[in-house]
Amino acid sequence: MQGRKTALTVVWLVLLAAVQVVAFVLLWRFAVRTEHGQLLDTIALTGNSIGRDRIDGLVGTVLNAMSVVSLLAATTVIGFIALIRRRMLLAIVATLLVAGANVTTQVLKYLIHRPDFGVDPERAAAGNSLPSGHTTIAASVALALVLVLPPKVRAWGAVIAVGYTALAGVATLSAGWHRPSDAIASLLIAGAWAAGAGILLVLTQGEQAQVERADAHRGIVTLLGLVGLGLLGVAAYALRSTDEVLMIPVDELNRPRLFDAYFGGAVGIAGTASLMMALVLTTVHRVVPRHNG
C-alpha cells in the first residue's frame, strides 16, 4: 500500500511539473513572440502609473530587500531549519530548489529573444525581461521554506509565503520593472522546480516513512486553491476587457481602461502564486513526512 501511494505521488508530481513547463512555454510564445501578447502586457504595464506615488515607498522596500546577499541569507536559514530537524537530504534539496530556479531564470532571460513589433518603443532597447528574477527569488525561497517547516507551522507559513511571493511579483509590475507575464513565468519556473524537488525527496524515502493525514492541511489547501482560482477568474475578465481595446493606441486609453489592465495583471500574479502554493501543499505531507523512515 505504501509503495502504491509513493508511486501515485511521484506520478502527480511529474504531471504537475510537466503542466507548469508547458504553461511556461505557452505563456512565453504568446506574451513575447506575438504582437497580441505584447500589447496586453504593455497596456497593463502602462497602467502602473495610476496611483504609483502612493505605493512607491512600499514597492521600493520590497524590491530593495531582494538581492544576492538576501538570497544567500534566506537559503542559509532554510538549510539551517532542515538541519535542526535532522533532515540532511531535505536541506540539500531545498537549497537545490532555490539555486536551480534562480539559475534557470537567469539563463532563460539571457536566451529568450523579444521581437520588436513596435508595441513598446520606450522599452524596446531593454530587450527581453521574461522571466522576473526578483519574483523567482521570492517564490523559490517561499516554496523551499514551506518544505522545511515542521508540520505544525507549515500551513500558516504557506499563507505568509504566498503573501510575500504575490507582493514581490506585483511590486515588480508596480515599479515598472516587469510585465505581468514576466512574474507569472517566474512562478511557473519555481513551481516546476518544487515539483522536481518533491520527486527526489519521495524517491529517497525509507520504507518506514510515516505519513500523517493531519499534516495534509486540507483546509488551507482548499482556501488557497479557491482564492487562486477566484483571482485568476478576475484576471481573465480583465484580460478580456483589455482585449477589446487593443486597436486603440496605448497613449490614448483612458485611466479606467489602463487601471483595469494593470489590476488584472496584478491579480493574475497573486492568483498564480496562491494556486501554485495550494498545489505544493497537496503533497508536501508525503514529500516531507514527519518521520522519513
Automatic annotation (TrEMBL):
Transmembrane portions of the chain: 7-31, 62-83, 90-112, 132-149, 156-177, 183-204, 216-239, 259-281
Keywords, alphabetical: Membrane, Transmembrane, Transmembrane helix
Gene3D superfamilies membership: Phosphatidic acid phosphatase type 2/haloperoxidase (1.20.144.10)
UniProt feature coiled coil, ranges: none
Pfam (any one): PAP2
SUPFAM superfamilies, A to Z: Acid phosphatase/Vanadium-dependent haloperoxidase (SSF48317)
Domain of life: Bacteria
Sequence ranges assigned to domain Phosphatidic acid phosphatase type 2/haloperoxidase in this UniProt record: 91-198
Protein name: PAP2 superfamily protein
Organism: Micromonospora pisi
